[in-house]
């Protein structure tokens, strides 16, 4: 709730729902997940997030604001996680199919990798559609191994950090056309992003409540001005 670029962003509404609720409802359609847990801070400003989780009957763990790695580890330990599927809260339009596909990919290749993602540096998913999968025990070990400030802020960074390839053997998902679109941004950072996400969600959900990544990409291609405004804001 205390985002410096867009305060209160996850509770902003589209179609009469907070964006975080939209994300959680989409995640509930992912058949590969045993539980959904929101990892937020212990600040009173984040009480509305706790209240939303309680209303939706979704797990909520409250921890450090500065050390996100510690917070996510705490959430995993509190809820007995074996495998963690990490999603950031500013990706409200994530496709549940992507979650199931990434988990299946990880389970298929876990003898050869300890980290799977469909995003950068090696994947080609749209920004805002990124899924990361890894074993909880590997993340706990990173927390105990003197993480630096960047690793504390970007939870999974060590898995794909330069020089760690031999240790974690990260694998990245690349989608075939038309889904491989890393040039597209549908993540919530600025007011321009919210305006795009609100318009996109309300338009697409009016026609199909279960719309996915393909519909998101098609909509963005039909509304280049809104998308261009988001990319321009990031270039400022």
Describe the protein's topology.
Elements: E1 13-14, E2 17-18, H1 19-27, E3 37-41, H2 47-56, E4 59-63, H3 68-78, E5 83-86, H4 96-109, E6 115-117, E7 132-135, H5 136-144, H6 149-153, H7 157-160, H8 165-168, E8 171-172, H9 191-207, H10 213-222, H11 224-235
Helix pairs in contact: 3-5, 9-11
Structure commentary:
This protein is α/β, with parallel strands linked by helices. The chain has a single domain, classed as Alpha-Beta Complex (Spore Coat Polysaccharide Biosynthesis Protein SpsA, Chain A), CATH 3.90.550. Helix content is 44%, strand content 11%. The protein contains 11 helices and 8 strands. It has helices spanning 19-27, 47-56, 68-78, 96-109, 136-144, 149-153, 157-160, 165-168, 191-207, 213-222, 224-235; strands at residues 13-14, 17-18, 37-41, 59-63, 83-86, 115-117, 132-135, 171-172. The strands form 3 sheets. Strands 5-7-6-8 form a 4-stranded mixed β-sheet. α3 (68-78) packs across α5 and α9 (191-207) packs antiparallel against α11. The protein is globular and about 45 Å long. The model has no long low-confidence stretch (mean pLDDT 96).
């Amino acid at each position: 709730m205390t985002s410096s670029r867009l305060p209160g962003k996850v509770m902003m509404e589209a179609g009469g729902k907070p964006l975080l609720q939209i994300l959680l409802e989409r995640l509930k359609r992912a058949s590969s997940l045993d539980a959904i847990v929101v990892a937020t801070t212990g600040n009173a400003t984040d009480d509305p997030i706790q209240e939303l989780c309680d209303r939706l009957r979704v797990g909520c763990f409250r921890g450090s604001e500065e050390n996100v790695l510690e917070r996510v580890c705490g959430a995993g330990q509190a809820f007995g996680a074996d495998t963690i599927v990490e999603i950031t809260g500013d990706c409200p339009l994530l496709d549940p199919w992507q979650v199931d596909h990434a988990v299946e990919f990880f389970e298929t290749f876990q003898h050869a990798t300890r980290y799977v993602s469909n995003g950068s540096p090696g994947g080609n998913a749209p920004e805002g559609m990124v899924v990361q999968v890894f074993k909880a025990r590997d993340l706990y070990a990173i927390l105990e191994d003197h993480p630096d400030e960047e690793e504390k802020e970007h939870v999974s960074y060590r898995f794909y950090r330069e020089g760690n390839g031999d240790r974690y053997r990260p694998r990245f998902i690349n989608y075939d056309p038309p889904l491989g679109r890393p040039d597209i941004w549908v993540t919530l950072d600025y007011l321009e992003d919210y305006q795009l996400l609100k318009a996109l969600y309300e338009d697409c959900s009016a026609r199909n409540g279960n719309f996915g990544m393909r519909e998101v990409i098609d909509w963005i291609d039909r509304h280049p001005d809104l998308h261009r405004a988001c990319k321009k804001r990031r270039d400022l």
